[in-house]
Amino acid sequence: MMSTRSPVTVETPPPATMGIRQLPRNVWAVSLTSFLMDISSEMVINILPLFLANVLGVRTNIIGVIEGMAEAVASLLKVFSGWLSDRVGGRKWLAVAGYGFSALTKPFFYFANTWAAVAAARWGDRVGKGIRTAPRDALVADSIDERHRGLAFGFHRAADTSGAMLGLLIALGIVWAAQRGALALGEDVFRTIVLVSIAPALLAVASLAFLARDVPVQGQRAAPRFAFRSLGRPFMVFMLIVALFDLGNSSDAFLVLRAQERGLSVAGILGMLITFNLIYTLISTPAGALSDRIGRRKLIIGGWIAYAVIYLGFGFAQAAWHIWALYALYGLYYGMAYGTAKALVADLVPAELRGTAYGTYNATLGILDFPASAIAGVLWQGVGGWQGFGPSAPFIWGGSLALLAALLLAMSGIGRASSPR
Description:
By secondary structure, the chain is an all-alpha fold. 74% of the residues lie in helices and 0% in strands. α6 (149-179) runs antiparallel to α10. It is globular, with a radius of gyration of 23 Å. The model is unreliable at 1-12 (pLDDT under 50).
């Protein structure tokens, strides 16, 4: 007798292993968008300090304010943008709006002829980044099975870094053709690079808008909350130590200006930045495996000590090649230790308080981005009638604070339990 029961439908689980070609459409779309936007951004942002100093004659105290405020704006907006994407019920269009906002700022760099105009364009670009980052990452996470998220984010990160390197190579090509051995950046060269950067920025927005598909929001995260006492003494002490380190962690714009001050040409500076990105790309994946073996606490302390040695080296460097070599080592620091402090936060608080802990962590460091760069600019060239302590001062300051932070973290014992036994 034939059964009248309906056949049971068995869902095929996602494969245990997945290749890059099997990645979902959204991962490819977001990766292409990041690739294109990083081509655009890295072409302009890395030479912006040279435009301010060489063409507009802006002092480092103003450059510090511009860069510090830019990073603070981006960091603080990231705290809220992920929550907002949950509230509006979608990731894609909030990310598109962020990319679009950044793309619209590009032409303003071309027309800027005062530091205030440059600041407005720079801050607008960072507003776009702050809006897009969290919903973009959530779009990737929501589009793929959790077993394959590592591959998805690794692919996205590779596309992002590849775009940065290509953008620097394009800028280097323009500088090489127009002012090969020049020490100072020419105004026409900067504006040419800005014009070239507009096309990939617009293509980035279009690729996300037309290729990505929104996905249902996976749950609702709570609104960002901030606290210190309720998160426990270990977290409070750790935040104080991280804040001390961050006060000396000024914008990399000062490293670019230091390279030029030591005699590196504009083309040489771009070559130095390409070297940094290459080393950072090559070291970051094996460094992640290293952190699993030796523990985050040891990696943070070692990373901060390395940062201190490198920054003190920037302070006492005597020749252009010293700066290039130190910047290559800086890529090792970034690949090995950058972001590890954030990972340690999860070990210091109960699972139900991690959202509050990360909100507090990100907001605190976002606020400190501003004084860190402002202090560096004042230390270099002073303010008002005071001429400052000179080009070495910001790096001696940053290196000293990093050493002190490493020492305090080692003495505190915080995070010791998270290290592998």
